[in-house]
Amino acid sequence: MKIIIAGAYAIGTYLAQLLSRNNYDITLMDSNEENLEKLGRDYDLLTMAASPTSIKSLKEAGVSDSDLFIAVTADENMNIAACTIAKSLGAKKTVAKVDTYEYVDENNLELFHKMGISSLIYPEILAAKDIINGLKMSWVRQRWDVHDGALVMLGIKLREGCEILDKPLKDISGPDDPYHIVAIKRGQETIIPGGNDELKLNDLAFFMTKKNFIPYIRKIVGKEHYVDVKNVMLMGGGTTAVRTVNTMPEYMNTKIIESDEKRCEELNDLIDTEDALIINGDGRDLSLLVEEGIRSTQAFVALTNNAETNILACLSAKRMGVRKTVAMVENIDYVNMAESLDIGTIVNKKVIAASHIYQMMLDANVHNVRFLTTVHADVAEFVPVQGSKITLKPVKDLNIPRGMTIGGIVREGVGYLVSGNTIIEPGDSVVVFCHNVDMKKIEKLFN
Fold first, then answer.
1. In the chain, which stretches have pLDDT less than 70?
2. 3-state secondary structure of 242
3. Measured between alpha carbons, how far is residue 296 from residues 134, 290, 291, 317 in Å?
4. Are 137 and 143 in contact (CB under 8 A)?
5. What is the pLDDT of residues 261-298, one digit of tens each?
6. 35: exposed, middle or buried (Cβ count in 10 Å: 0-12, 13-18, 19+)
7. What are phi and psi of 232, to 5 degrees?
8. How remote is the C-alpha of 7 from its chain's centroid?
9. How far apart are CA 156 and CA 214, in angstroms?
10. pTM of the predicted structure, to 2 decimals
């Protein structure tokens, strides 16, 4: 597959690094040669110092033979123009990163399709959805829904009081139990577990279950005492904060702490709800947090542009009794550190955006791809076609690649957990969890 990425910034560089490991034919374009130098040296990809809106440069990059053209520069107008030109020159699919909320309105998508843009990516909206999902369940680190909750994956940190610790999974999670453990993060190690593996204290365990069994999961992991989130305090009033507050459930009360006075004035116009209180101050000031009611706050969300600030602020909030903390950590190198410090939910916009772009590269009918940075793994929803290998034998006889597990299936809108005797049918939505596996190998099972 030939892929051209325009923009050696956060999303573009991360995507290029990720895809270069899977032997894609990648060209990374950027008008700033310094942005490209290190990437071209360290990764298996071509770099090109050129403007993505130059017709001559796009032709030289081979855009007419490209399967996917991705424009993720810092300028949304350049991204839109580059995609339009690339499509006209023969690119099969195009993706543009935008920063204008109006553009991603469903009523306007057809307009962009006519312009030659296959998909629009607005990272702040995607991040806001993740944040709100985390806030709705204070005892869960990550939540991922398949078909509106027909199946649900929950990432849960296991503490004292969890009643399923130190027992073989075959004894606590059999074919008739309402959940499967699809992955375990233990320290720096990711485990795709077998029947003899056990859950240990402080593991981050990923449960696949159905929505009606969520209260049962909450009970067995000992999280019933966690209170629901009603009062939320956000540090940082950037675009992600605005999108988060404007899409929060009505029962949540929000305070935004922003250090820039001018930005506070802007937030008064940008925030749709009257329930949000905007405070001019430094979110690292403990006395200010106390004064604004941090001790009666159930969730603290740090969304400044500085990862270190967000991590430290969440640590302070935890010490002051806040159960649920969310930190935006854009520097990938800090994700493991944040996880080791037990920060809570970690949000990375470029990883979220890359997940949405990545699914466009797969030939199989695949939806809802997510990169789980804390476990260095992917989870995706595949739909097998008639005659595909995955449909020919029971799951236990499929000889699936090492590092892959099947969490469950959705058939005609109903979710089912998978056992060894399950036979997958064409048209099922199959939830696949994989660690250190080339997605192309998995894709072949479904084609």
1. 21-22, 40, 359-376
2. helix
3. 19, 9, 11, 11
4. yes
5. 999 999 999 998 777 999 999 988 999 999 999 999 99
6. middle
7. -120, 135
8. 21
9. 12
10. 0.80
